[in-house]
Specification:
The complex is a heterodimer. Chain A is an all-alpha fold. Chain A has helices spanning about 1-30, 40-55, 60-80, 90-110, 140-160, 160-180, 185-205, 215-230, 235-255, 265-275; strands at about 130, 135. In chain A, a hairpin with a 2-residue loop joins strand 1 and strand 2. Chain B is an alpha/beta fold. Chain B has helices at about 10-15, 25-30, 55-75, 100-105, 120-130, 165-175, 195-210, 225-235, 250-260, 275-280, 300-310, 320-335, 340-350, and strands at about 45-50, 85-90, 115, 135-140, 155-160, 185-190, 210-220, 240-245, 265-270, 285-290, 365, 370-375, 375-380, 395-400. Chain B has a five-stranded parallel β-sheet with strand order 2-1-3-4-5, sandwiched between helices. Chain B has a four-stranded parallel β-sheet with strand order 7-6-8-9, with helices on both faces. In chain B, helix 3 packs parallel to helix 12 (about 320-335). The chains are: A mainly alpha, B alpha/beta. The interface of A and B includes residues 10 and 250 of A.
Chain lengths: ~290, ~425
């Protein structure tokens, strides 16, 4: 029983991290209708830049600068390419982001090589916290803190600021926002930058936990897509809830039947889609109906 | 992915000959794009097949570099049998695709032999294809014993060591150090052909020598988070954590195990140097088994390392060695046999011809299962202060088998892994 409780708590910790990646995907889809298949590539770029910047500036500054740089790359890509595809057949954005994912991975391979790059947890975040029989690493607790702050910050940004008001209005009816004299273009760029910036934050944090190698985003971004579908694309708290649920489900399945741990989330997705095709908390998008 | 770029000067005759392949193919040839036309008859064509993506992609990249260097060196020295060597390379992707890629290399590219692969699932399919199409295959990265046992065939030769060889190398050493008898082992196993086979072989060795395997967790490849398993290890409190993981999964586990700071030692049924490099010196410790390490002090080994570093700006590891050896051994055998005829070469390889395999002792293929009789090595992770550079992570402790032992002693016996060539 104690073991189950420990796995649930650990699952919440892991799930919060998945949530960060999934939220980025979700907000990019909500406003622009873009299913960003290149999200994993931005995640990987985040990890590589963190390794690069840490050598020069130390981990703390690297962690702050990386999402900003990836966000700027995102703005450039959105303005140069994606913007031309919004009103076209959705298959075009799918193809573009798919191509971007492959180009991104190959670019990393060309620049940094195919081999994994060693990168350790920074000294000031290493160590473990023992609470009774429970064990937590300081690094994972710091990830929980970062994701909690990011989620809170995003919620405030989208719900308590004038920027958020325009974004929400744009999600509901972009045409009406334009009629009101507000240009949606910079808003779309900003939202894309925030979305890929979140992927970079997740990549930064994972650099010390997994191998930093060009294909590192491939597996984890699939989990992020599952979370988006489970929670319902466009639903902020739906994605947060689904992220935590996925973390717990993987942990509990690993406890009782490890071979199914990775597959369990796909089984859950099938179940949810049968009963709620729009996801658990999915919202209705007029323009996509 | 097609890596070979073959520029051709098209003559009218060639255009007529290849017209069936379509105008697009001709255009591709003239533009210097991957050629779709059948390769010329005058070259020795090598078909390299290995995963270039996914969790084995990093190892595959080393293999690709190794095979490229071998071909480059051969051509600089006049080729094989006086003929230029052409390299055709394919990403094997996975077990569903690999046999088709192998067939394409054999039938379309008309390769004289195949070399490569890392995944035992894919390797079994490539072996079956090579056998069916009567083409030689130098298998360089698949560890599953089953490929040398129930799946063995006359056309496949194994440069990579099998799971039993890895297990006996480290197991015999640990046994002598008193780290097996009466000890509890907690296994984490990759959930595919290689892992299942390794868990079976490791469990047999450990239990035969008085050890107790308290758990064997099957884990999907590419798992990004090991924390649920690490918590289970904490609760089980074993003497050793025993990993049967491959490629990038070794790296991820070692980093996260270090993160949790558990006191139990880590050992395992396999060790890939590239995975340990990526984990970093802080995350690794203890004694491991190695097929080949660039710190090997033999002249030919150092020459290979030097050439590799000059070309790629980093040292080779065991997979680069394997694919490099695959081409070099076939080249030596063809020169000795003075022919490319597969059956003649099989006869020669089975006759006990020995090869310089960049280790202190030469290697020969065992006739019964085509496994390369060779030394392996017990290596110790260095202290950070003793490292000459970031690649210098191991110190070679001893060769296995020892200098006075028969190379056969770490191989599976016929009873352990029966092979019937049919």
């Amino acid at each position: 029983m104690l073991m189950l409780f420990e796995q649930i708590l650990n699952g919440l910790l892991v799930g919060s991290y998945y949530t960060l990646l999934a939220l980025g995907l979700s907000i990019i889809f909500s406003l622009g209708g873009v299913v960003n298949l290149a999200h994993g590539a931005f995640y990987a770029v985040g990890a590589y830049l963190t390794v690069l910047f840490t050598d020069i500036l130390g981990f703390g500054l690297a962690f702050l600068i990386t999402p900003a740089v990836v966000g700027l790359i995102g703005i450039a890509i959105e303005a140069l390419f994606l913007r031309r595809l919004y009103n076209k057949d959705p298959i075009l954005t799918l193809l573009f982001t798919f191509g971007l994912a492959m180009s991104g991975e190959q670019a990393l391979r060309l620049i940094f090589g195919a081999s994994g790059i060693p990168f350790s947890i920074p000294e000031f975040l290493s160590g473990q916290l023992h609470v009774g029989d429970f064990l937590y690493s300081y690094y994972r607790l710091s990830i929980l803190a970062v994701t909690s702050l990011s989620i809170a910050g995003l919620w405030i940004l989208f719900n308590k600021t004038s920027f958020g008001l325009i974004v929400r209005a744009g999600v509901a009816d972009a045409e009406m926002v334009r009629v009101m004299g507000i240009s949606v273009k910079p808003i779309l760029s900003m939202v894309f930058a925030i979305g890929v910036g979140l992927a970079a934050v997740a990549g930064s944090m994972s650099a010390s936990l997994t191998g930093v190698q060009p294909a590192m985003g491939n597996d984890i971004v699939t989990v992020a897509f599952v979370i988006c579908v489970l929670g319902g694309l466009g639903s902020f708290w739906g994605v947060v809830f689904a992220g935590l649920l996925v973390g717990i489900l993987k942990g509990v399945t690993a406890l009782y039947f490890p071979p199914a741990a990775e597959g369990s989330i796909y089984a859950l997705m099938v179940l949810v889609l049968i009963f709620r095709p729009r996801g658990m908390f999915g919202v209705k998008f007029e323009r996509l109906e | 992915m097609q890596n070979h770029v073959k520029k051709e000067n098209l003559t009218r005759r060639q255009i007529l000959k290849t017209s069936l392949t379509g105008a697009g193919a001709i255009a591709a040839g003239t533009l210097g794009l991957p050629s779709l036309v059948t390769a010329g008859e005058d070259t020795i064509r090598v078909g390299h097949i290995t995963p270039r993506s996914g969790f084995l992609g990093t190892l595959g990249d080393y293999g690709f570099r190794g095979v490229n260097l071998a071909v480059e060196e051969l051509n600089a020295a006049g080729g094989i049998l006086g003929r230029e060597v052409d390299l055709f390379s394919e990403d094997s992707v996975g077990s569903a695709v690999a046999p088709t890629k192998a067939q394409k290399l054999i039938e379309k590219r008309k390769v004289h032999f195949l070399v490569g692969e890392i995944s035992s699932g894919s390797g079994g399919g490539i072996m079956a294809t090579a056998n069916r199409l009567k083409t030689l295959y130098m298998q360089t990265g698949c560890n599953s014993d089953a490929l040398r046992g129930e799946k063995c065939n006359p056309y496949s030769f194994h440069i990579e060591a099998g799971n039993t060889m890895y297990t006996k190398t480290i197991g015999n050493w640990q046994n002598r150090a008193g780290n097996v008898d009466g000890k509890n082992f907690y296994m984490l196993t990759a959930d595919y052909a290689f892992g299942h086979d390794l868990a079976r072989v490791s469990t047999r060795f450990l239990t035969e020598n008085g050890g107790n395997v308290m758990a064997n967790e099957l884990i999907a490849t590419g798992t990004p988070d090991y924390s649920p398993y690490i918590l289970k290890i904490k609760a089980a409190a074993p003497d050793f954590v025993y990993i049967n993981l491959a490629g990038g999964d070794q790296t991820t586990f070692l980093k996260q195990y270090k993160e949790f700071g558990l006191p139990f030692k880590v050992s395992g049924g396999v060790m890939d140097t590239a995975g340990f490099w990526a984990a970093g010196i802080e995350s690794i410790t203890g004694y491991w088994q190695s097929l080949w390490y660039h710190g090997m002090q033999t002249d030919t080994s150092q020459a290979f390392t030097k050439a590799f570093v000059e070309k790629y700006k980093k040292p080779p590891e065991n997979q680069a060695w394997g694919d490099y050896m695959g081409v070099k051994i076939m080249a030596a055998a063809m020169e000795e046999a003075k022919t490319t005829d597969p059956d003649a070469i099989i006869g020669l390889l089975e006759s006990g011809m020995d090869f310089d395999i960049l280790k202190p002792r030469k290697g020969t293929f065992r006739k019964s299962d085509h496994s390369l009789l060779q030394e392996m090595f017990v290596v110790k992770v260095k202290d950070k202060a003793d490292m000459a550079d970031k690649w210098d992570i191991f110190e070679i402790v001893e060769a296995s088998p020892g200098a006075n032992e028969n190379l056969d002693v770490i191989q599976p016996t016929q009873a352990e892994n029966a092979c019937n060539m049919g």
